[in-house]
Amino acid sequence: MGSWEFSAAFCVGRSRGCEVSIATSEETRTVSKRHVGIVPLTESLAATARSGCSKRRWLIYDLETMNGTAVNGEDIPSGGSKELHNGDEVVLASAMRQCVRLVVQFPDEAHSHIVVKALARSATPPPAPQHRRTATPVLGDFIAETQPDQSEENIS
C-alpha cells in the first residue's frame, strides 16, 4: 500500500488530479473522484504566542461525497470537517461495504507535515444476519392437513 507526505493542503480521491490518487477498481469505485481535502490551519503568530501552542492543526473536509467519510468510526457530515490527530483512521466511502482505509501520522511534534498511509483494502464486516420469518403455510395446505384421509374412511 502507498504512503504520502505533505506540508500543504492536498486532495484524496480517484481522480488523477488528486495528490493522493486511488486507482479505480471494483473495490474502490465507491470512493468519489474528489473525496476529501486535508488542509493545515494557519494561525497568526500572535494567536500562537497567546496560546503557547506551536503545534500545527490539520483538518479533513468531506467534499460532499455520496458514500461518506468517517474518522475513527465517527461519520463526517457531507461537506463537513473534523480535526485530525496522530493515529486517526480515515475511512473513505464509509457507508459502503467496500471502502478505503487510511491512517494519519505526524512525524514531528510540531505537526509541520502529515503522512497518510493506505491500509490493506478489505471489505467492512457484513451486516448482522436478519432473522428470517419462516414461511406461513398456504391456507389450502392447512385445510388439506386437517382433513381426515378419505382413503382410510372408505376401508370396509
From TrEMBL:
CDD domains noted in UniProt: FHA (cd00060)
InterPro entries noted in UniProt: FHA_dom, SMAD_FHA_dom_sf
Segments forming domain FHA: 10-76
Gene Ontology molecular function, alphabetical: mRNA binding
Protein name (Swiss-Prot/TrEMBL): FHA domain-containing protein
Organism: Phytophthora ramorum (Sudden oak death agent)
